[in-house]
Q: What sequence folds into this?
């Protein structure tokens, strides 16, 4: 049986057919992605025609990755370096696969052109979980098809155009007449080249990590990133992630909010009840790489009978003039710590927020909230741009400027591993801050106290070696921090600035207490006012997610926002520190610690009297165990629900 005659746009070698057909699908993917705007312009206020053109172009990076993923079976079959690819039967098989996978691959963009209005985010991998949950999808499908019939017609039109064009881009049934060995060698060379280009396209480039949902924040503000993202891409990138489940621990919302309320709004009044205007002080948040509380002598007065000096002489001197809290990290990695500190967004799930299915959600941060008060913002990290997706996250979080290794622009200060040494980069940061218009909010994340814990050669004999390799690098980072303060203290903005100093997470430990589940999360949280007006020690437990609400409360910010922490200055709040690790929650509060996997009986310890956490006292203190478990439930019910429903901002 002969192929039906048709006008052919192109007839030739298999690899050329692959290229031309994928270009057709890529263009269709771009136009189907933009249907989200064309059918829902009211959801994207402020988008101009030039914006839309830019989003159409930059989004091709995500379209290409999605198209290549979807077409991998077709690409592999067409790049096999053998002559049977020209046979009629083989061509029919590859054609069938091509049309099938691309009909499926185009579909998510059309679904999202309707579904997005309900979720305000692109489809993610957890959609399959909800499709299989009950019969709602099957019951609602006829109604959706009835209400949005025009979307179905558009989808059929796109598929028809794809088939019409691609059926005219065909593999020649004749193959070159040449020596089989030379044919195989030539085709193998082409296969290797195109395989490399395919991997390049799948990753979205040659950057350190493959592009993710959050990468869209590099090309558009958070409210417009769905116009850059391709729905098939966001599904594929989140397929292996376990979505959160909504929890119903409490009978009423009022009961739940007695323990924790993610909605925040502070009212600052004087003794007469009059509202105190907000203070537009600058804010500088310094996040020190791996700076465990263990390394800081002044925070460990009981170690070695008070003789423990630690490795942070500058920080010790600053702590004596600061407000200090019993601080805890919300996670064990930088990718967890940065969102917790800057956006009060912890990782209370199996995936990091930055790489999770919820990274495309709208969320507020200290930068985005203070922008409405006239603040400029910047984030500084001396690492190679793209490291851990911090640049993309910070742009999504509303930071206007990002300064990394590329912006520093002098690789003579490159440490050979991670980025620019802390000392020169902190001096660079100081000078850039001095150029910023006040008021400003800025954050700097150091890196030299990261493995392999090197220090510059010129300081090889300056810093002591501790029990741990990291402690020499910690002392160098502390020295760099001291030089930073020596520089900025003479700058005009210094006295009008609140400094916050913390760590992204802890490091390995030598002291026994810091090897248990409490000590493994103990980090400094320090608030410093140059005029000495903010001193003392908090009597409350404080976690990284408390930093944003604490700063906003201190400034007198009075608008509502969402935070998964409390202001340390709010005496009515239920102050605690919650972390999630190895599928288990841990809550720390005033000497107590509760471990709970969400299902089985919780384990209760009192770490002030049991530093090794070896004695479970749940049976001796069942009331305390239940109280702490209820606090966890309040946090988790709100966290899961808000993540799933995309309610991380006040609408």
A:
């Amino acid at each position: 049986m002969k192929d039906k005659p048709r006008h052919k746009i192109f007839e030739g070698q298999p690899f050329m057919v692959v290229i031309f057909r994928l270009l057709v699908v890529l263009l269709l993917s771009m136009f189907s992605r933009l249907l989200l705007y064309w059918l829902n312009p009211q959801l994207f206020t402020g988008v101009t025609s030039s914006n839309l053109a830019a989003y159409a172009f930059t989004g091709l990076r995500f379209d290409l990755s999605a198209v290549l993923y979807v077409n991998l079976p077709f690409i592999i079959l067409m790049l096999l370096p053998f002559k049977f690819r020209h046979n009629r039967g083989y061509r029919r098989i590859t054609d069938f696969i091509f049309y099938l996978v691309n009909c499926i691959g185009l579909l998510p963009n059309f679904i999202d052109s309707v579904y997005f209005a309900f979720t305000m985010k692109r489809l993610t991998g957890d959609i399959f979980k909800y499709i299989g949950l009950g019969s709602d999808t099957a019951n609602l499908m006829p109604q959706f098809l009835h209400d949005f019939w025009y979307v179905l017609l558009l989808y059929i039109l796109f598929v028809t155009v794809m088939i019409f064009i691609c059926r005219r881009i065909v593999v020649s049934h004749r193959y070159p007449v040449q020596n089989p060995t030379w044919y195989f060698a030539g085709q193998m060379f082409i296969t290797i080249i195109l395989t490399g280009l395919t991997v390049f396209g799948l990753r979205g480039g040659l950057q350190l990590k493959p592009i993710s949902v959050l990468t869209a924040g590099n090309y558009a503000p958070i409210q417009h990133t769905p116009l850059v993202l391709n729905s098939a891409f966001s599904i594929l990138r989140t397929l292996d992630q376990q979505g959160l489940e909504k929890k119903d621990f409490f009978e009423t919302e009022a009961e739940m909010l007695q323990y924790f309320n993610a909605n925040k709004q502070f009212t600052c009044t004087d003794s007469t009840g009059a509202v105190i205007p907000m203070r537009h002080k600058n804010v500088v948040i310094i996040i020190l790489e791996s700076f465990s509380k263990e390394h800081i002598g002044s925070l460990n007065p009981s170690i070695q009978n008070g003789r423990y000096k630690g490795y942070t002489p500058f920080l010790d001197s600053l702590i004596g003039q600061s407000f200090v809290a019993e601080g805890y990290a919300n996670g064990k990695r930088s990718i967890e710590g940065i969102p917790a500190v800057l956006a009060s967004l912890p990782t209370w799930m199996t995936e990091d927020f930055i790489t999770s299915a919820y990274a495309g959600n709208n969320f507020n941060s200290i930068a985005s909230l203070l922008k409405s008060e006239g603040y400029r913002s910047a984030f500084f990290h001396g690492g190679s741009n793209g490291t851990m997706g911090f640049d993309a996250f910070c742009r999504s979080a509303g930071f206007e400027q990002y300064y990394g290794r590329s912006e520093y622009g002098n690789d003579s200060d490159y440490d050979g591993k991670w980025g620019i040494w802390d000392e020169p980069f902190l001096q660079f940061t100081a000078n850039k801050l001095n150029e910023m218009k006040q008021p400003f909010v800025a954050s700097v994340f150091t890196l030299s106290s990261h493995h392999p814990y090197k220090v510059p050669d010129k300081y090889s004999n300056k810093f002591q070696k501790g029990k741990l390799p990291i402690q020499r690098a910690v002392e160098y980072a502390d020295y760099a921090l001291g030089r930073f303060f020596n520089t900025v203290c003479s700058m005009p903005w210094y006295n009008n600035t609140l400094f916050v100093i913390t760590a992204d997470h802890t490091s390995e430990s030598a002291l026994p207490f810091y090897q248990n589940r409490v000590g493994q999360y103990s980090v400094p949280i320090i608030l410093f006012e140059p005029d000495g007006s903010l001193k003392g020690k908090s009597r409350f437990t404080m976690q990284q997610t408390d930093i944003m609400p604490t700063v906003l409360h201190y400034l007198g910010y009075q608008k509502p926002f969402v935070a998964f922490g409390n202001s340390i200055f709010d005496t009515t709040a239920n102050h605690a520190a919650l972390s999630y690790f190895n599928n288990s929650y841990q809550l720390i509060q005033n000497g107590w610690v509760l471990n709970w996997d969400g299902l089985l009986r919780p384990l209760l310890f009192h770490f002030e009297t049991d530093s090794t956490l070896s004695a479970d006292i749940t049976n001796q203190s069942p009331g305390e165990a239940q109280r702490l478990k209820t606090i966890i439930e309040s946090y988790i019910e709100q966290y899961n629900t808000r993540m799933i429903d995309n309610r991380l901002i006040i609408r």
Q: What stands out?
A: The longest strand covers residues 536-543. The chain has two domains: 10-237, 253-645. Residues 227 and 324 are 43 Å apart (CA to CA). The mean pLDDT is 91.
